[in-house]
């Protein structure tokens, strides 16, 4: 009995330590955002909160078009997330529940694309956007991100285990076509998986930096991460201002996660159990 008690205490101690390690970067960001850069450089380091947060916020707003770039980022992130949820779930349902020639080969090719680094696709993708005349436009961020291999793989695994073939056959016998079965049978049962994929996609799109930096040549269309990168001056970095901008950029992500956290955790745990 005592052995199990000590094992439980050790497990909780490890979990608490892991939580502290995980939270430290966020707490340190807040500390840096509420102090001045001089306080940050001080030795020994200052680990207490300061009173300069609103001054730093004002400096951020004076140096970058924060709200305009945040609006651009919100348009891209929301549009990309909605398109990914629709196209990925539709393709995943097709792969999971319908047999057609070449299905397995196509799925293997789809999985193979996950092995390629995103940097390899940057040049041909930019050339495509240039041919379409979308360079500098938000469409160059939204359309290429409208579907991805991970989302299709994730939703396919969920559909295969959560929707029985008999249910699809019953819907077909009741007169539902392919899209009707997808809309009325598949989607309602996949809400946890969709919530997980939606948050995963939204966060990835919100934090994307490399592709917007390459393709957004119009200053009025830059996203938040690209705008915040301009706070890094060539002759010195005001870390308090940079951290304040990063902290402000995290607020929408925290709100989104707080709203969908229950479905997100449910989808992640069910996906782990279902395999």
Automatic annotation (TrEMBL):
<keyword id="KW-0813">Transport</keyword>
<keyword id="KW-1003">Cell membrane</keyword>
<keyword id="KW-0472">Membrane</keyword>
<feature type="domain" description="ABC transmembrane type-1">
    <location>
        <begin position="70"/>
        <end position="260"/>
    </location>
</feature>
<comment type="similarity">
    <text>Belongs to the binding-protein-dependent transport system permease family.</text>
</comment>
<dbReference type="InterPro" id="IPR000515">
    <property type="entry name" value="MetI-like"/>
</dbReference>
<keyword id="KW-1133">Transmembrane helix</keyword>
<feature type="transmembrane region" description="Helical">
    <location>
        <begin position="193"/>
        <end position="214"/>
    </location>
</feature>
<feature type="transmembrane region" description="Helical">
    <location>
        <begin position="239"/>
        <end position="261"/>
    </location>
</feature>
<feature type="transmembrane region" description="Helical">
    <location>
        <begin position="129"/>
        <end position="154"/>
    </location>
</feature>
<feature type="transmembrane region" description="Helical">
    <location>
        <begin position="70"/>
        <end position="93"/>
    </location>
</feature>
<protein>
    <submittedName>
        <fullName>Carbohydrate ABC transporter permease</fullName>
    </submittedName>
</protein>
<keyword id="KW-0812">Transmembrane</keyword>
<dbReference type="Pfam" id="PF00528">
    <property type="entry name" value="BPD_transp_1"/>
</dbReference>
<feature type="transmembrane region" description="Helical">
    <location>
        <begin position="105"/>
        <end position="123"/>
    </location>
</feature>
<dbReference type="InterPro" id="IPR035906">
    <property type="entry name" value="MetI-like_sf"/>
</dbReference>
């Amino acid at each position: 009995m005592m052995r199990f008690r000590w094992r439980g205490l050790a497990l909780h101690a490890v979990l608490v330590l892991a939580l502290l390690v995980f939270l430290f970067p966020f707490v340190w960001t807040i500390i840096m955002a509420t102090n001045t850069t001089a306080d940050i450089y001080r030795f020994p380091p200052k680990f207490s909160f300061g009173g300069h947060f609103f001054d730093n916020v004002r400096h951020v707003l004076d140096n970058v078009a924060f709200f305009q770039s945040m609006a651009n980022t919100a348009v891209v992130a929301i549009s990309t997330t909605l398109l990914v949820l629709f196209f990925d779930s539709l393709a995943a349902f097709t792969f999971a529940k319908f047999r057609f020639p070449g299905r397995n080969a196509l799925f293997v090719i789809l999985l193979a694309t996950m092995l390629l680094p995103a940097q390899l696709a940057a040049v041909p993708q930019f050339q495509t956007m240039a041919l379409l005349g979308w360079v500098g436009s938000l469409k160059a961020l939204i359309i290429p991100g409208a579907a991805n291999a991970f989302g299709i793989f994730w939703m396919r695994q969920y559909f295969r285990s959560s929707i029985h073939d008999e249910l699809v056959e019953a819907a077909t016998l009741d007169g539902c076509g392919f899209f009707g079965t997808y809309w009325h049978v598949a989607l309602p049962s996949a809400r946890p998986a969709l919530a997980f994929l939606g948050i995963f996609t939204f966060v990835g799109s919100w934090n994307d930096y490399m592709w917007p930096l390459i393709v957004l040549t119009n200053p009025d269309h830059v996203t938040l991460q690209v705008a915040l990168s301009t706070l890094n001056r060539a002759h010195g970095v005001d870390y308090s201002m940079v951290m304040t901008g990063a902290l402000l950029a995290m607020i929408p992500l925290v709100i989104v996660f707080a709203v969908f956290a229950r479905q997100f955790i449910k989808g992640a745990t069910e996906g782990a159990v279902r395999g």
